[in-house]
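Researcher: We're teaching a course module on how sequence relates to structure. For the next exercise, students receive a sequence and then see the predicted structure as tokens, so they can try to spot secondary structure elements on their own. Here is the exercise chain.
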Amino acid sequence: MLVFYWIGALVFLPLSNFSLLAELSAVQWGLLAFCGLNTLIAYGCFAEAMVHMEASRVSAIIALTPLLTVAIVQLIPIPGITAEQLQMLSIIGACMVVCGSIITAVAKKAP
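Model: And here is the predicted structure for the students to work with:
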């Protein structure tokens, strides 16, 4: 994963505008630092989960993470964050992902 991140960073480096970093407020710097640390912690937890659980179950749980984020943004009003309205097709797709994750997590292995 580290190799892929370095390749992506090198490809997008010439297109980056670092002068905008000087315009960030203290809160924005804090959020940027939090996102970076959160990514490191999340990948560490993911690697540890892969050691202790089956890969199919870990991936089923990971598939639910973005849905949880969307649900929180939709259901809990957060000042400064405008939630995009979900269409019926999006809701049906989210339900299918949840059902697939549940089936994957609780399915028994065939003998």
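Model: If you want an answer key for the exercise: The mean pLDDT is 84. Helices lie at 2-12, 26-52, 55-75, 88-106.
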